[in-house]
Fold this sequence. Notes:
Elements: E1 2-6, H1 14-25, E2 32-36, H2 42-54, H3 60-77, H4 83-100, H5 108-133, E3 138-140, E4 148-149, H6 160-175, E5 179-183, E6 186-189, E7 194-196, H7 202-213, E8 217-222, E9 243-245, H8 246-255, H9 265-270, E10 275-279, E11 288-291, E12 303-317, H10 325-338, E13 342-347, E14 352-357, H11 360-370, E15 374-388, H12 393-400, E16 403-411, E17 414-421
Parallel strand pairs: 1-2, 1-8, 2-5, 3-5, 4-6, 8-10, 9-11
Antiparallel strand pairs: 6-7, 10-11, 12-14, 12-15, 13-14, 15-17, 16-17
Amino acid sequence: MQVFKFGGASVKNAEAVKNVATILRSYQGANIVVVISAMGKTTNLLEKVCEAYMTGKDVSKLLDELKSFHREIINDLLEEDSHEYYEVENLFIELECLLETEPGELSYDQAYDRIISFGEMISTKIVSQFLNKHGVSNRWLDARNFIVTSEHHRRARVNWSRTESLVGKMLRKLVSKQFVITQGFIGRSITNKTTTLGREGSDYSAAIFAYCLDAESVTIWKDVPGVLNADPKRVEKTELISEISFKEAIELAYYGASVIHPKTIQPLMRKTIPLHVRSFVDPEASGTIVADHQRKELIDIPCYIFKDDQVLLSISTKDFSFIVEDHLSEIFDACATTGIQINVMQNTAISFSMVLNNDEARLEKLLETLENSFIVKKETGLQLFTVFNFKDPKNIEPYTKGKSIALEHKSGKTLQLLLKEGAVS
Ligand code: ASP
Ligand code: MG
C-alpha cells in the first residue's frame, strides 16, 4: 500500500490534471491512496471569501472568480451537462448556500474551515471523475470520514486512535480494490465539524494516512525535482539531494525549507515509512528519498534557507539589570500565550533578542505584555538566512552582499544570519 500526494501546482489547470492521470495510469494495479490539494491558488482565494463573509462584505465577485477558474478546467476535462459536471456545480451551489446564511454563532475559525474545505472537495471531485472517465478507475472518498481531529479550528490536532481505527476498518479494504482519491488538509472534529490541519497541510494528511495504513511509502509529487539545497526561485544554481535522513528533513523543515510540511516527517519516522519527493514534470526521475538511512548525516553540501519579513525584538530590563531566569520565563510565557514561535534567540548580559515571523496581531499582543516589565526594541523588514551545513564563508557572499548583519547565531554546522538591507552605517 502506498500514499501519493499531489499539491495545488500539480492540479492547477486541465493540462496538469491530465498529467496526474498519466502518472497514475503507470501505477495501475497498485494499492494507492491519492491525496490531493485544492487547485492552484484556490485556498488563498477562499481565505478572501471567508474574510468577506465574516466582515459582512459582498462575496459575489470572489465567488465568480472561484467558479470561472474551476469552470475553465472542467470545460476541458468533463463533458458539459454530464452527471460529473453537475457534481462539481453542486459544490458551488452548496458553498453559495452556506455563504447566504448569517454566520450567527459560527466563530471565524469555524467558518474558515467550512469554507476553505471546498477547495479540496472541488479539486478531488474533478480529478476523480476525470480519472474514472479515462481508464483510471478510482473511488472518491471524503477524508472527513477518516481523519478525526480536535476542535482546534485551522490548526486541528489529529486524534490518532480514532483515525487509526477508522482507516483500519474502512479505508484499508477499499484501497485494496482500487485507487482511492481523497482530500488533503481537511478533517472532522469529534462533534462532526469540518476542521483543517494548518496551511499547506496536505503533506501531513498523506503522512497520517500512511501511518494508519502502515503504508510501504509516501510519494509527494512536486514541481521541483526533489529536495534541493535551496529554493530555485532564490538561488540560481541549486543541487538535488538524492537521499536525506528523517532527522535532516525535520531540521530543514524547521529552519523554513518549504519543500516538505514540518509535521509530515514525524509520523513517518515512527514507522520508518520512506518518503519520496518526486517531480510530476519528470515522473521517471527518482527525486529524493527521505528515510531512516544507515548513515544519519547524508547532506554534505550547504543548504540555504531564506525567511523574509522577520522581526527582531531586543528586550532589556527597565533598570538595566541582568536578564536572569525569571525574566526569561516571563518572556517565554508571553510567547506561549500569544502563540508566537521564536525562530532564533540569543541572550547577552543585559538583553535578550528573539527573531519572529511578522504576525502583526500576535506581535501586538506580545509587545503589550512584554512592555509591562521590559524595554522592548523592535526592528522589522529583516531576512533570516540559514545555512545548514555551513562550510566556506565565500559560498554565502552572494547572499549577504550589500546587507548588514543584525544578529548572528551558530550552532553545530548551522549558521543563521539576520540580514538587513544596506551596509552597516
Ligand atoms: N490547499 C491547502 C493550502 O493551500 C493545503 C495544501 O495545499 O497542502 O494550504
Ligand atoms: Mg494548496
